[in-house]
Specification:
single chain, RNA-binding, alpha/beta, 3-stranded antiparallel β-sheet, globular, 4-stranded parallel β-sheet
Length: 564
RNA sequence: GUCACAGUAGCUCAGCUGGAUAGAGCAACGGUCUUCUAAACCGUGGGUCGUGGGUUCGAACCCCACCUGUGACACCA
């Protein structure tokens, strides 16, 4: 970073009067390949100002520059290319990492402010699908990333534990269900009821009326309805918690939709009092024409509340309770409009903190190009995917490393890691088609590839019989093969910031892949464990790579076993 | 129809604020384990960056139009 400043300062002494430092800063770029240097300055703008050929300008600048701080500076075409002093740079970066360890890349832009994160939020009595995995792992990674830059995350699992689907479930249970089946395999059994309900309701629409009636009973506190609801909820939550444990993810709150039942009337009253409600087609709405949005439906024509009514209550509750500096919602892209409406209504209500609500959308997971649908029974169960992945990992371990201790645990870390990493490595806005083979792949740009890279580094450190390299020892490294690694290591703090600014875990995942690739290349070309002047510096490099890879994986919520 | 997101190699995708020959992985073919774990590394082939205009010294990236896909669009969440 201060390396870049040095480039800027050096250039500005020569370009004084033509370009100021800010202009120069904006023009500095990083060449695609390191044989073109580490920083480059294009001269096209100057060519325009000076009415001169850019190539000529580039070589003029090189002639006039003070080149002492750099390994070399040369003109290539229209560019001035700067090559950093490798030995100084390596000593700086490695010393910083070895000193700071896990804290390398930490920042304090958050200043300890609370950030609520609405994430995961599966529906009770429905299986945990790949779709919920996205919200869960993206939300978790964002929580880790914002923690690293100084915020305090509050992870909230906004369970779908209320609504007419419970009426459907109760009707189905009373008609076709029995207690023993539910106890044996709660979610799958409840799912069967749910699917059957929809199938039968197609030919027998009165079932829907019955379901509505039972949901009304639940709302009115009917004993039997409440009993069933509580039972379904408890059984489902038990299963969800098992899955979260497998994923290594926990929550600060499980306050679901039912939690806000008694908090909606206040919202409706406030909207009324502020004259924001109007009658339309029998329903109570908030007109959002001036936001160029569809109206927000607050009350149905029968007086019942709706999705947005509850989310308004939720947002207000979270603000009053947690005094957040940001409130994040990690919810699929198909709900984008809803969150725009939510913010619009809140700002009409005069809640200036509405601007702190940040919707973090992500693309759908489809199967054979179609949306996954619980109703139609076409879903991919996360649990099955995790099991398949773990099984496959164990098979690999048995082939490659049969005498590894704690094989099962490592297989689990690798299998689950593959699934999580697969979900996080692409831009979160992209949707993707579910393909089991793709998800549980262990070669190429995958989680296990990164894990394996760290295992290699760990293995070297074990063989060298050192735990930590002294940060104060000689860390100058001149090996050209190590250069790409050193630059990447130096980029890590900026990478973390970018992931934070964009709420984009894939930035970290891609970084981990790049660093792994660079290290594996180095590993194939240079031997670390040979006794010469730079051995200590090489070990420092290896330890630094391992520190940063482990940190990046931890941000993503992926485990980093020491052996595999 | 309106709005949103997307369209880059056979497939899955990178490409940071516009810049130097558009990059990876998978798949295909070929090479590398007596030497730090081959879940790796190296090489070969493979591209009208959806289409057409425009802005710019320079566009995969910015602007406009169009085409295609997906999703949302009033009493589900």
């Amino acid at each position: 970073m201060d390396q870049k400043q040095q480039v800027i300062d050096t250039l500005s002494t020569v370009l004084d009067g033509e370009l100021n430092k800010d202009e120069i800063t904006n023009m500095i770029e990083i060449p695609k390949t390191s044989d073109l240097g580490d920083y480059a300055f294009p001269t096209f703008m100057l060519a325009k100002l000076r009415h001169q050929a850019p190539q000529q300008i580039a070589s003029d600048i090189v002639d006039k520059l003070d080149k002492r701080a750099f390994e070399k500076v040369q003109a290539t075409g229209a560019y001035v290319n700067f090559f950093l002093n490798k030995t100084n740079y390596s000593a700086n970066v490695l010393q910083t990492i070895l000193t700071q360890q896990d804290h390398y890349g930490d920042a304090n832009v958050g200043k300890g402010g609370n950030v609520t994160i609405d994430m995961s939020s599966p529906n009770i009595a429905k299986p945990f699908s790949m779709g919920h995995l996205r919200s869960t792992v993206i939300g978790n990674a964002i929580a880790n990333i914002i923690t690293k830059v100084g915020y305090h995350p509050i992870k909230i699992n906004h369970l779908g534990d209320w609504g007419t689907q419970f009426g459907k479930l109760m009707v189905a249970y009373m008609k076709w269900g029995n207690e023993a089946d539910v106890k044996k395999d709660p979610i799958n059994t409840l799912l069967k009821y749910y699917v059957r309900f929809h199938k039968e309701a197609e030919t027998n629409p009165e079932l829907n009326d019955e379901a509505r009636l039972w949901f009304k009973k639940l709302e009115d506190g009917d004993e039997k309805a409440t009993y069933l609801w509580t039972w379904f909820r408890d059984e489902s939550l038990k299963e969800f918690k098992r899955i979260y444990e497998e994923l290594g993810i926990d929550f600060d709150h499980y306050t679901g939709e039912s939690f806000y039942n008694d908090k909606m009337q206040a919202v409706v009253d406030e909207l009324k009092q502020k004259h924001l409600l109007e009658k339309s087609r029998g329903a109570e709405i908030v007109n959002l024409d001036k936001f160029n949005l569809n109206p927000a439906l607050i009350l149905k024509s029968d007086g019942a509340t709706l999705y947005i009514t509850r989310d308004l209550a939720t947002a207000i509750y979270r603000h009053d309770t947690f005094h957040f500096v940001k409130s994040l919602y990690v919810v699929g892209l198909e709900q984008q409009e809803h969150f725009k409406q939510l913010k619009a209504v809140l700002s009409l209500m005069g809640d200036e903190w509405a601007k702190d609500i940040q919707y973090i959308g992500f693309g759908l997971i489809t199967q054979n190009g179609k949306k996954l649908s619980t109703r139609k029974g076409n879903i991919v169960l996360l649990e099955n995917v995790l099991q398949d992945a773990t099984k496959l990992a164990l098979k690999q371990i048995n082939e490659k490393h049969p005498d590894l201790p704690n094989k099962e645990e490592v297989a689990h870390d690798v299998g689950v890691g593959a699934v999580i990493f697969h979900d996080l490595k692409n831009n979160r806005l992209d949707s993707f088609d579910f393909n089991l083979e793709e998800v549980v792949r262990f070669e190429g740009e995958t989680g296990p590839y990164v894990q394996y890279t760290n295992v290699r580094a760990q293995s070297i450190l074990r063989k060298a019989n050192v735990k930590h390299i002294d940060p104060q020892s000689a860390l100058q490294l001149s090996d050209a093969n190590a250069w790409d690694i050193l630059k990447l290591l130096g980029d890590y703090p900026a990478t973390v910031m970018r992931a934070n600014n964009d709420y984009e875990p894939s930035v970290i995942a891609k970084y981990a892949l790049h660093l792994s690739k660079a290290f594996n290349k180095y590993y194939a070309n240079s031997k670390v464990l040979v006794d010469d002047d730079e051995k200590n510096a090489r070990l420092a490099l290896v330890e630094s790579v391992s520190i940063v890879l482990q940190n990046a994986l931890a941000l993503l919520g992926v485990k980093a076993p020491a052996e595999m």
